[in-house]
Amino acid sequence: MALKLIVEGCKEKVRDFVEFLKISPYWRLYSGSKLSLGKEEMRIDYYFDKKLQNNLSLTDKPISKLTIHSKDGKKIEITLLDAQVVEIEEGITYIYGKNYDVYAGK
């Protein structure tokens, strides 16, 4: 059975939220409708279902390297698999992906 999601509010925020959902690695958006609620507001109705898990090996997945520079000059590097970058608003960026540490315990 599919999920129905209804989001209503400021047009810009609703669009940003929908773009965020579209890149979800776990859910597939397959049907939707938009309704304008005046000059500044809108409503969306979307249907989602679970994405089938693909069985790619770790070496088949896209690899990205995230580098963060601190104010005192230190550098932190994080390697991510299936990385996604979403600009939430000006100056705020959400980056997520999978990181595997072979030395980490269970």
Question: Explain this structure to me?
Answer:
- The chain is mostly beta strands and 106 residues long.
- The chain has one helix at residues 11-22; strands spanning 3-10, 27-36, 41-50, 63-69, 75-89, 92-98.
- The strands form two sheets. Strands 1-3-2 form a three-stranded antiparallel sheet, covered by helices on one side.
- The two termini are 34 Å apart.
- The mean pLDDT is 81.
User: How big is the Rg?
Assistant: 18 Å
How many strands in all?
A: 6
What is the global morphology?
A: flat
Q: Enumerate the strands of the largest sheet in spatial order, edge to edge or round the barrel.
A: 1-3-2
Number of domains: 2
Q: What order do the helices and strands follow?
A: EHEEEEE
**Tally of contiguous helical segments:** 1
What is the CA-CA span between the terminal residues?
34 Å
Any low-confidence stretches, pLDDT <50, length ≥5? Answer: none
Keywords:
3-stranded antiparallel beta sheet, 106 residues, 1 helix, single chain, 2 domains, flat, mainly beta
Summarize the structure.
This protein is mainly β and 106 residues long.
